[in-house]
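Dear support,

I submitted the protein below through the web form. The confirmation email said the job was done, but the results page showed an empty box. After a refresh the structure appeared. I'm attaching both so you can tell me whether what I see now is the final result or a partial one.
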Amino acid sequence: MKIRVKNAVIVLLHLLRNSFLYRPMESQVQQQEYVDATSPKSVTTIQGSELGNLSTIPIAQKSNNQVSEIGRRISNFLERLPEYVIRFVNEYKLPVISFALLVVGVTSLRILLAIVDAINDIPLVSPIFELIGIGYVTWSVYRYFFKASTRQELAAEMRSIKEQIVGENVSEPTS
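What the results page shows now:
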């Protein structure tokens, strides 16, 4: 696995280096190459070259060594990435969980609002929902606010809900 990742990174870096987008040294090489072509001092022989065999120029070897070094560094970083992520999550567990819950909450709220907006765009559905809301408010006012006994029943129900949420006995309000 390590060798495959390393080879893939080396190939990508080699392609990037040879692509038309990345040519920072090309103009300098061409200038040096065509400065004085007639002078015998400008022509150098490459050591270890034989007739019919191509030998590599030291500059090309240097750039290949740089590419392989960069590939090794990237490969080592990618190998250690799971360790870095695990260490980060363990060190900052509460903020990571809080951030994840915040993102999930905001995303779910946006989805819910999008669904409600899509439903409201359907003809006659929005007025029907408004009529249902008006009917429920009218029923609850008639049910709980017209008689004193039903108001007390509503107050007792609200106290029981507070006790369930808070977990303590809430003192009775004085009336």
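Response: this is the final, complete result; the empty box was a page-load delay. Confidence is low (pLDDT under 50) at residues 20-24, 26-35.
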